[in-house]
């Protein structure tokens, strides 16, 4: 479900129009996030670490309204819920795009995710599902501790979907850190909203024990 945002009454009306016709209106912010608590919970309960951080990330994004804004046909819509659309690695070291379904329950999220991953790997197609806007585009690059990131783009498209990348974890003073790069459309999302995402993600990590038991 989605509802149209009244751009004329939007406090960011001027910002929206200022950035929307840029050749590249996206910007990217990378930061290291401590995920020690999440890793320990996943390890002690035999949970998938990948699904653990993917779940907390999309949960945080869903709670920030600006991450649910999308530009469609010169209008801005607010989706009531967004889902992960992530690359997954194949046995031959290529990748495919997998369509995940978000759920408030981590157990339900994992059950749906395992079915989606199997379906995607069994399918001969590179892209799973339709070209949807109620998603965030995810990828993981666990071989590199990222400090920056760029994405391939089609500048002739009206893409406004956020893109989030997880890098290789590393130890810092006995804390497990993960580089996370967030790319967003500046007509829809400002730096303060990306900051809220990182702060909320960290809060959810601290509550991993409770959230992942649901």
Polypeptide structure, described:
The protein is α+β, with helices and mostly antiparallel strands and 214 residues long. It has a single domain (2-6, 24-211), classed as Chloramphenicol acetyltransferase-like domain (Chloramphenicol Acetyltransferase), CATH 3.30.559. It has 6 helices and 10 strands; from the N terminus they run E-H-E-H-H-E-E-E-E-H-E-E-E-E-H-H. Strands 2, 5, 6, 7, 8, 9 and 10 form a 7-stranded mixed β-sheet that branches. The protein has a 3-stranded antiparallel β-sheet with strand order 1-4-3, with no helix packed on it. A hairpin with a 5-residue loop joins strand 5 and strand 6. Helix 3 packs across helix 5 (191-206). It is globular. The two termini are 25 Å apart.
Morphology: globular
- The overall pLDDT, averaged over residues, is 95
CATH superfamily (homologous) name: Chloramphenicol acetyltransferase-like domain
CATH architecture: 2-Layer Sandwich
Cα-atom radius of gyration: 17 Å
What is the percent of helical residues? Answer: 25-40%
Question: Which structural class do the helices and strands define?
Answer: alpha+beta
The ordered string of helix (H) and strand (E) elements is EHEHHEEEEHEEEEHH
Q: End-to-end span in angstroms? A: 25 Å
Uncertain segments: none
